[in-house]
Amino acid sequence: MYAERASRLTGAVVWTNTPDGAGGGPVLPDGCMDLLWSEGRLLVAGPDTRPYVPEGPPRSWAGVRFYPGTAPALLGVPAHELRDLRVDLADLWPSARVRRLCEGVEAAPDPVAALEDIALGRAARTTAPDPLLGRLVERLDEGRPVAATAAELGVGTRTLHRRCLSAFGYGPKALARILRLQRALALARAGTPYAETALRAGYADQPHLAREVRELTGMPLGTLLGGG
């Protein structure tokens, strides 16, 4: 069973996922990165460009999901180096520090809150994310074209692409596609007809929506939403 709540860290979400016998679906691209806790290990989920299917038997997970573009500064690593990867936090931070953090989470009365405390502590010692990145996400999530957004923000296309690789793991066009996918999924899950979903999310038409969903998730929209 999956559950989430707003984090004490601005813009982040804290979530848990425990096996419920129904089988877990793939993790879909959403523009975010996560700090993960499972079976005594701290891991980082990099930005996805394709569906991620966890390996091995089902197990419980907890995580802090960071708003797009904010995790690299907290973790101290460019997002593109973690694209489509799950890595041990000890591969990014000193192993002795990570071992102490794992011991603290393991011993905490509420491991989820302890995981959140790690993120909050890191944020307190890290420079705030570049506000331009937040404005970029907002505009692309509104369906604004990449070129027009770059011009509005006063950033050249090459500079924007380089900054996006570091912050999001991929270029602004890929980010725009992923944000549009998430808009479409939210509409479709709310019962909006597919043709209307396509137009409201920013696709040319329903066939365009169908192609994009299959390319980014590996399955048709109906199957993704549990409709067969």
UniProtKB/TrEMBL annotation:
<dbReference type="GO" id="GO:0043565">
    <property type="term" value="F:sequence-specific DNA binding"/>
</dbReference>
<protein>
    <recommendedName>
        <fullName>HTH araC/xylS-type domain-containing protein</fullName>
    </recommendedName>
</protein>
<dbReference type="InterPro" id="IPR046532">
    <property type="entry name" value="DUF6597"/>
</dbReference>
<keyword id="KW-0805">Transcription regulation</keyword>
<dbReference type="InterPro" id="IPR018060">
    <property type="entry name" value="HTH_AraC"/>
</dbReference>
<dbReference type="InterPro" id="IPR050204">
    <property type="entry name" value="AraC_XylS_family_regulators"/>
</dbReference>
<keyword id="KW-0238">DNA-binding</keyword>
<feature type="domain" description="HTH araC/xylS-type">
    <location>
        <begin position="130"/>
        <end position="219"/>
    </location>
</feature>
<dbReference type="GO" id="GO:0003700">
    <property type="term" value="F:DNA-binding transcription factor activity"/>
</dbReference>
<dbReference type="Pfam" id="PF12833">
    <property type="entry name" value="HTH_18"/>
</dbReference>
<keyword id="KW-0804">Transcription</keyword>
<dbReference type="Pfam" id="PF20240">
    <property type="entry name" value="DUF6597"/>
</dbReference>
